[in-house]
Amino acid sequence: MSTIDIPEPLAFPADPDERLTFKVAGKGVRVKDAIEKVTGTLQYGVDFAVPGMLHGKILRSPHTHARVRSIDVSRALALPGVVDVLTHEDAPDLVWEAAWFNYRGRVLDGTARFHGDDVAAVAATTPEIAEQALELIEIDWEILPSVLDVEEAMRADAPQIREEGNVRPPYVVDWGDTKAGAEEADFFKEAEVTFQSQQYAPLGRNAAVAQWQGDRVTLWTSSQTPSELRDGIHEALGIPQSKIRVQALPSGSSFGQWWSNNFMLVTVLLARKVRRPVKIELDNHECMISVKRRHSEITRGRLGCTRDGTLTLAEFDHIIDNGGYGFKDDVGFFCVDMWGRAHHGNYAIHGVNTNRLTAGCMRGVGDVTLGSVVERLADQCAEEVGMDPLDFRLKNQIVAGEELRMQHAKHSLRGSVDDYLAGLSEEERASMPPMFRLSSGGTHEILKRGAEAFRWRERFKGWGRPTLIEGSIRRGVGVGTGAHVCGVEFEGNSSAVVRLNSDGSAKVHASCGRQGQGSETTLSQIVAETLGISFEMVEAETGDTDSVPWSHGSLASNTMYRLGWGVREAALDARDQLLEIAARELFDRCAPAELEIVDDHVRRIGDATGADYSVGQVMMTLRTLDSLGPTSSITGRPRRLMPPATTFARHFAAHFVEVQVDVETGLVTLVDYLATQDSGTIMNPQVFKNQMIGGAIAGAGFALHEEMIFDDATGAVRNGNLLDYKLLRAADFPINGDVLFSSTYDPVGPFGAKGGGEAPIVAPGPAIAQAVRNAIGVWVDMPMTPERVLRALGKVA
Amino acid sequence: MTQINVNGRAHEVAVEGWESLAKVLRDQLHLIGVRVSCSEGECGSCTVLVDGQQKTSCLMLAGQAAGHEVTTIEGMGTPDELHPIQEAFIEEQGMQCGFCTPGFIMSAKAFLDENPDPTPEETAVAMSGNICRCGSYPYIVKSVQCAARKLGRRREEEKA
Q: Which helix (H) or strand (E) holds A234?
């Protein structure tokens, strides 16, 4: 039985009042690469080239599930301009894994597990010749039985796609006693929802360029996870990590697509075979049919509720279709925690493989799907007891200090929270916040302030009541909520290095992506704020694995919270080293703690008129007065362990929307939009408002239009292009769409910040679905295309 | 050899009949600001101006540009002297990953040349030929409105 007594807020060594003195943190400074972006000079993966480079193309499977009996490349090799062909016979018999089991398999192993799977690759002097040569490769295929339906794939007699079998053991989050939860309930709301798959539909595509020098390889590609990609090459080729250098370049929109992808490893192997640099550039179609997609999922479940609107039970069974190579079973679904006031709960997640395009984490994974079902059922409970959806959320959703439900999150092969905690010393444990309680925020503040800004109380006319009826037009309002994690620790901690230069400038080395979220800017803000130097004096290197310490990279809303923690700790270490030198050499051997750095100058704390020395002057003493010291530079590293973020940190979104539905055509349009967010301190509001609205638009796309179409017989993607896969455009979203941030200050995150990138794509679906329900009286499954709307209205069969 | 005038300079290029203008601009003239994504005229990333008219350069054959004036993002402004539209996109943060940005800026140029004082609604419709997958649309619309104001002020100054 759970309690909603709210314990004392977490007292962790951090001070919310420090926000009052921020000079760089929390400010909307201009992103560092803004000029490169508006002048078109920013170099993405597709723009990269090296001298002497060949061009590669990948042969893709025309079959759903098939094994290569034999492969004849002689005709391809005879084509003028072709240099060589890579087949599975050249590939090591080694399994590699992308982060979070987004991919698990051999680079090429002679078996195609989906239509479009990588089979072989050609290197030639031009991309056109390479493409032509693909048609000359002759393969004798053994067609294998295939399975496209995820529930068929779960049956014992189904064709098995992988050596590990199709089905992962279920991952279960449970608390209390579901039987008791059912007995406490006065009524239940149940649902079964089958979700379609969302495509990343990346603008910008991607390319990989690999170059071998002796037995060392360098790979340039757009990636959000440089360190994980280096590890993947190490696993796939069996060569030491020291011989691998990944230089991650900026990417176009990614949403989780460009982590470590098999085509990057194909490029590495092809370049090794031809002993020359090779570039493989994917066209837009290949990006959409061969790389990855959002899992397609099926949710079945129910909520139990009392007449006073208290949730007593949450019981869900959720299946995720991983396609051919995804290997996930334990996606964190943070709706579990957001709705964690339910007295008893059981969420079971089943990861399953099918012969459809391989699937992986896409922005807001799990919460976009399962989360939207929980929201819909909660709305139905609210309606049943006559409560406003806002009040129902305030009554049943978590706030800071309350217990989290996801207490034993595992990561099947590489440890669990339990292992992590068992490994901590008592001292380390004592230095961390209480585990399994939400460290800050929640939905309550943003719901209340959002409701005020949106005039919710005035505009919500009651369940199923439109705000406007005019001819065939109906309007309605909706509010939806979403949560996601702030980074996950299991595979290792996110470290960083801060180097101080002799002129007082600083460089931060931190492994993450550059897909538009401005991390090189926000991480530099953390360094500038910590060191007391100006933003212009700080630069960031995020992509070169020869210089950045290991980090997960930009995934799981990790960058600000966990990598930001590492960056702040490294900057603190650099600061302490600097002040020690300054105290010894320039301030009469005072205690370093008596000094501070303000506006690029070191002085005694609060002493604005006494002696001060620029950071550059202090640094120069390392080369002059202190020249016999052990080092002539300062390198700061984290000295403390990042507490395990999954045990206390979540970020939240609440979105308010007004929709218009034409009951004659079934078309749903968005009329008004407000996105609110609890992400603690917002390091850069200019950057973040864009990320919030961008999430709202991608979430609205999933709710209204976006849907991959698969061929019934072969599983081939039918709409793998931007003509047939519809994305929202500028005129499809309210131009006055606005944002609002909570005042939350997280006690753990750097300067009170939390993660933020994913909840914004989670909340739109539930908000829009509820608004449609209020406009036209029925619930419509996503995507709410005109056809589905008319079907829900009983106007078409 | 084919002569193409790009950003005020004449270039002689060897062009295959099947080669798109986008390909020649990127591969032969090294203008990487001409971004190519969908290659079917849907996304607008490769938008350039041909004699001032907005064109998706992925759908235009390079040969068709012979003798015409092509303007790419590289012809708009330099880091030291940005075009007012580029300044506006920075000020209003009309971008995230930046891949679609040059295409949007070129579309905005063509649009504002014809409609110097648009309403935000008109701008949103005019910008709907381009896709921003990151979803910066409201800020792109604000950027174009801001650019219209900047260009308006510039015209006033020139008159005075």
A: helix A226-237
* DSSP-derived pairing of the beta strands A278-282 and A54-60: parallel
Cβ of A41 within 8 Å of Cβ of B86? The answer is no
Q: 């069974």: which residue's tokens?
A: A317
Residues 242-261 of A with CB under 8 A from B: 250-254
SS3 A449: helix
At residue A2 the predicted structure's pLDDT band, cuts being 50, 70 and 90, is very low
What is the pLDDT confidence band of residue A488, given thresholds at 50, 70 and 90?
Answer: confident
Question: Which residues of chain A are within 8 Å of residue B43 when distances are taken between CB atoms?
Answer: 203, 722
Chain-chain contact of B95 with A723 (C-beta, under 8 angstroms): no
The model's confidence at residue A229, banded by pLDDT at 50, 70 and 90, is very high
Q: List, as ranges, residues 318-347 from A with C-beta within 8 Å of B.
A: none
Whether residue B46 lies within 8 A of chain A, CB to CB, comes out as no
pLDDT at A629: 66
Mutation choice for A interface testing from B81, B96, B100, B143 by most A CBs within 10 A: B96
Q: What is the pLDDT of residues B11-62, one digit of tens each?
A: 999 999 999 999 999 999 999 999 999 999 999 999 999 999 999 999 999 9
pLDDT class of A5 with cuts at 50, 70, 90: low
Which residue of A29, A31, A39, A723 to mutate against B (max B Cβ within 10 Å)?
A39
Greatest Cα pair distance in chain B: 49
Gyration radius from chain B CA atoms: 16
- DSSP symbol at A446: H
A423-426 contact pairs (CB < 8 A, 24+)? A424/A641
CA count, 13 A, side-chain hemisphere, A52: 9
Q: Residue A157: which residues within 8 A CB-CB, separation 6 or more?
A: none
d(CA A670, CA A665): 15
